[in-house]
Design brief:
heterodimer, A: mainly beta, Methylamine Dehydrogenase, Chain H, globular, B: mainly alpha, elongated
Chain lengths: ~375, ~210
């Protein structure tokens, strides 16, 4: 699912090559060749031997080992939104359940597609503008514009709550301690089994909450805030100063990555050391403008725009976790259709898509994707 | 000047001379990698820590050592020195004292990520003023010491600025700073050796003949 875990940490166990990467395969969804077109590919999702990518009309599944197209779904209108940030996708990513069901967030509800052929198996059609779903322990969690709903993987509803969300389809986070959803005024925490509301907070987030180890982490214009997932009480906060928003946290066991997004300047990637509990700055990248989007314990993947003006090219840079050295880079391109979306990490490989619909598997030289 | 004090200040001068060279070696020599990120708390004894913490600290120690050597030279010879050596000595000592303020101001301003503009401003102003004072002071000192019975200090002081400029011009790249520091190191090593060997004031040959 998007950002690796139901808690949306962006962390993936396993490893990535530190050098000598090579393209294993490349495929094209075949979106219209226009930067002004409405179709835009989502982040890739990997599971059940498939790489699944949505555009704003349908869903495409490729073999993870060969890149061959396995199926295309009927039109289901995956949720599209106009992201402010180059390092985000414009189309909400699906998720893959434990039984292989591909759960698609849509403008018109939530759809469950069969992993074998992409046929629609179930649908929840009373939701609107649904954000990327989270799946854990047989529970599918999704948030529409006015509702948070928990289903089983067969699409049967377990509970739902009215939650008024902003325009962006911010995804909820799912953990054993809580379900956390963002609202127009902040956050709300629910019991994952019953949906009973446990707490609310006035901490807002554009990039969505992250749940990890009993902590709910949010980034906003005030900095990073860690709330107790069970009670919503603030555990710690971290700020770089006024008007220095810290957004899109990616949480690894020893490191929290976040992007410092001043209003008037480029976005700088930060790594914060969390080995002693509260975070301490570890490094700040000199390279490009963008955000860390995914990480293993050793390598963080940043989506960065490097250069200025029409020559600026966007792509993925692999940073070493200890020192922030750039180990390798995958160049997307300068046109918006060449911008890379947050990638998926397999053990030893990266699956990446561009907004324009190129899907690629990159791994260490000689490795199997 | 008492022998023990002259030896202590001479040792400080030699130490300062040595550190002036050591602290200017190219960072790659002790393994500093080209980094793509600012690392906030480098591990102790790592190349980054050496570059960020140890070298700046040793730079301050080096400047203090150079200052000690010059103050020792001026204090020892004050009773017999002429105007050139006295004015040059005072000016040079004040300039080196200025460098001891400017060096840490620059160091901490480079490490400060909070956008504090006062420290680099102080470092720039004090450093520039010290440099403007130091150069004529060295000329006066070299003129004064060339006329003493042990003129090699004077010759070293005279050649030092030219050597800094010449080596800085001839050597390019990362080794430029260490090459330019060598004339400074040699000069202050000579000052230190003279202090360690001679605690009595250094007069001119004419004065010695009269004495």
């Amino acid at each position: 699912m998007a950002r690796g875990t139901p808690g949306r940490t962006g962390f993936t166990s396993g490893s990535l090559p530190e050098a000598d990467i090579s393209l294993q395969w490349r495929a094209a969804i075949g979106l219209p060749d226009t930067d002004r077109g409405s179709l835009s590919a989502s982040s890739p999702i990997v599971g059940e031997g498939l790489v699944v990518v949505a555009d704003s009309r349908r869903v495409h599944a490729y073999s993870v080992s060969t890149g061959e197209l396995e199926w295309r779904s009927d039109p289901v209108a995956p949720t599209f939104y106009d992201s402010l940030y180059e390092y985000e996708a414009n189309t909400a990513a699906p998720a893959i359940g434990p039984d292989g069901t591909v759960v698609v967030p849509s403008e018109d509800g939530l759809f469950g597609l069969a992993a074998a052929d992409g046929a629609i198996e179930w649908a929840v059609t009373d939701l609107r503008n649904v954000g990327p779903p989270a799946i854990a322990d047989g529970t599918v969690l999704a948030q529409g514009r006015e509702t948070v709903v928990a289903l089983d993987v067969g699409g049967s509803e377990r509970w739902r709550r009215s939650v008024s969300r902003g325009e962006e389809p911010t995804p909820p986070a799912l953990g054993p301690e809580a379900v956390v959803a963002s609202t127009e005024s902040g956050l709300r925490g629910f019991d994952p089994a019953t949906g009973e509301e446990r707490w609310s907070s006035d901490q807002r987030t554009e990039s969505g909450p992250v749940l990890d180890g009993g902590i709910c982490l949010v980034g906003n214009t005030g900095g990073l805030y860690a709330l107790d997932a069970r009670s919503g009480a603030e555990r710690w906060s971290f700020s770089r100063g006024d008007y220095r928003a810290l957004l899109s946290p990616v949480v690894a066991p020893d490191t929290i990555y976040a992007v410092e997004q001043p209003g008037e300047a480029g976005a700088a990637s930060f790594a914060l050391d969390r080995t002693d509990g509260e975070p301490e700055p570890r490094w700040c990248s000199y390279i490009g403008s963008g955000s860390v989007a995914a990480a293993t314990a050793e390598i963080a993947l940043g989506i960065l725009s490097i250069g200025e003006g029409p020559d600026a090219a966007q792509g993925i840079v692999g940073f070493s976790a200890p020192l922030g050295d750039s180990l390798w880079a995958i160049e997307g391109g300068s046109r918006p259709r060449d911008w890379v979306t947050p990638p998926a990490i397999l053990d030893g490989a990266v699956i990446a898509t561009t907004r324009g619909g190129t899907v690629a598997a990159i791994s260490g030289a000689g490795a199997d994707a | 000047m008492r022998r023990r004090r002259a030896r202590a200040l001479g040792s400080a001068s030699v130490l300062g001379a040595l550190l002036a060279v050591v602290t200017n070696v190219p960072p790659a020599w002790y393994g500093l990698p080209e980094t793509d990120a600012y690392v906030f708390e480098p591990a102790i004894f790592s190349p980054l820590w050496i570059n960020r913490v140890l070298v700046p600290l040793l730079s301050v120690v080096a400047t203090l050592g150079l200052l000690g050597g010059l103050v020792g030279l001026v204090a020892r010879d004050w009773p017999v020195a002429g105007r050139a050596r006295r004015w040059g000595g005072v000016g040079g000592s004040v300039a080196l004292a200025g460098f001891t303020v400017a060096v840490p101001a620059f160091v901490y301003s480079m490490q400060d990520t909070g956008g504090n503009l006062l420290l680099p401003f102080v470092g720039l102003v004090v450093g520039a003023a010290s440099l403007f004072l130091f150069l004529p002071s060295v000329v006066l000192l070299s003129y004064g010491y060339v006329q003493t019975s042990r003129p090699r200090i004077g010759y070293a002081l005279a050649v030092m600025p030219l050597g800094v400029v010449l080596l800085g011009y001839l050597v390019s790249g990362p080794e430029q700073s260490v090459a330019a520091a060598i004339p400074v190191g040699i000069t202050w090593a000579l000052v230190g050796q003279d202090l360690m060997d001679h605690h009595e004031p250094l007069g001119s040959p004419a004065a010695a003949a009269e004495g």
